[in-house]
Structures are given as C-alpha cells and as structure tokens.
Amino acid sequence: MAHQSILAYARYRYLKIATAAVVVAIAAYAWDRPPNGRYGGTWLGYTLGTVGALLIFWLLYFGVRKRRYASNAGMVQGWLSAHCYLGTTLIVIVTLHAAFKFGWNVHTLAYVLMLVVIFSGFYGVYAYLRFPRVMTDNLGDDTLQMLLIRIADLDRQSRQLALSLPDSINRLVLASAQGTRIGGTWWRQLRGRDPHCPTTAASNGVQIIGRKLAGEQAKTNHQLYAQLLKKQELVARARRDVQLKSWLDVWLYIHVPLSIALLVTLIVHIVSVFFYW
Predict the structure, then answer these.
(1) How far is the CA of 135 from the CAs of 49, 128, 235, 270, in angstroms?
(2) Where are the domains of the chain?
(3) What are the backbone angles phi and psi of residue 99, rounded to the nearest 5°?
(4) 122-157 b/e with 16+ CB inside 10 Å = b?
(5) What is the sign of the dihedral through the CA atoms of 250, 253, 259 and 262?
(6) 137-164 tens-digit pLDDT
(7) DSSP class of 34
(8) For the residues 206-220, what does the mean pLDDT come to?
(9) What's the predicted TM-score (pTM) here?
(10) C-alpha span between 264 and 81 (Å, rounded)
C-alpha cells in the first residue's frame, strides 16, 4: 500500500472514529454540570482520563507492533492510520479531562509531554508522506552507492586530465578528490550542503585559471571543468539523499525518548491520583 493511502486507509475509517470520539467527548463535557465545577476528579473527568490513558498505552504499543509484520493483529498501515488519528484526539480528550486547569505539577508535565509527542508525530507523518517521494525524484534510477561510485570515477578522470595542466589546477583537483565529504557530522547531514565544498572551489578555480590557457591546455581544461560540474551535481544529489534520510530519522530521536518520558510521567500521574484519592 502506498504511503499516500495511510491517512485515507479504509476510506478514512479512523478519521471517522476519531471525529466521533471528539464529538462525543465535547458533547459530554458540555452536558455535564458537576456541583463543584469541572475538574479531573469528576465522573466525567475520570472517564475521559481513563480513555486518554488507555489510548496513550495503546499508541505506545504501536512502536512495538509496527515491527511485527507477521502479526495477525491487523495491517501495519491500518495501525499507523489509527495511530495518527486517534493520537490527535488526545488533544481534545485530555484537555477536557483536565477541564482546562493546569499548574506546576506532574499532571501538567504529563499533558505538555503528550502535546510535544503528538506534534512531533505530526512532523513524522509529514516526513514519511513527503520525503520518500522527494528521495525518489532526487535519485532517479540511481542509488546512493551508485552516485558515490560515479563520483569516484569522475575524481580519477579529473586527476588524469589535470596532469597536463598547471600545478595550481592539480592542487584544486586533488583537494576536490580528497576533501569533498558527503555526510559527516549530524549537523552537516541535516544541512545537506558544505559552504566550503572543495569541489565547488575547484570548479570555480579551474574556470578562472582556464581563461589564461590556450591551445591543448585550454581544451583539456574545458574537459576538466565539465567533469567537475558533473561531480558537483552528483555530490549535491548525494548530499540531498543523506539529508532527507537524516530528517526522516531525526524526529525519532525526539519522538521516541519523549514517548518514553510521557509513559513514565503518565504512570506517576495515575499513581499520584489514586494515592490522594
């Protein structure tokens, strides 16, 4: 099943369920008129809190479920669709559970963590719907490994061409071959570019120096310049691929740890509620 169909899974089954759940929660909240005012300790507050907690536990289980493709519990795409829509309902359900009352306590901390996890999940949905298509457009029929092989071939050809050219050009070509980096640090991967890229510097330098050359050297320099431009384009595509993969991964470094923190805080919240009950 295509990624684009995840949100529309089974004719928007889970969007309809989520919408119905939100409507019921809002209607119950509007209908309920507790004598001591609305708060999390009323019958409706406990009901919404229980529903919210069960939803959170179930959604956290998805992290385990999505890796078990052989399970009979349902298609992974269906679980992901439910994860997206039912997770979003928590914004309404838990807010109504708290009756819009917040403070400097573990209960509000759990609420804030829940919101951060949900909104990081929104980014995850966007990334997994958009980035794979962009990655395919960027690579075409190539793979990252194929791009790296072609870059290495261009380096060899460029160094061979540079042998008959001035030393200044040889130094630029050597720096391009030895100094061009694809990937590297986490920050460099996310940026997807190198403002001081040796290949860019080499192509610019070769073009400038080439204006002073004539005859066979000028012809060879033109061939070298064309090779460097090809390499520059391949390097940009390779960096873009690494960048997109990094942005696909980076949200997990936020979403998963915060989900674990939410689980711990939620348990503390529940225990403290029953302790003071």
Answers:
(1) 41, 11, 14, 43
(2) 3-138+251-275, 144-246
(3) 55, 35
(4) eebbebeeebbeebeebbeebebeebeebbeebbee
(5) negative
(6) 999 999 999 999 999 999 999 999 999 9
(7) -
(8) 96
(9) 0.84
(10) 25
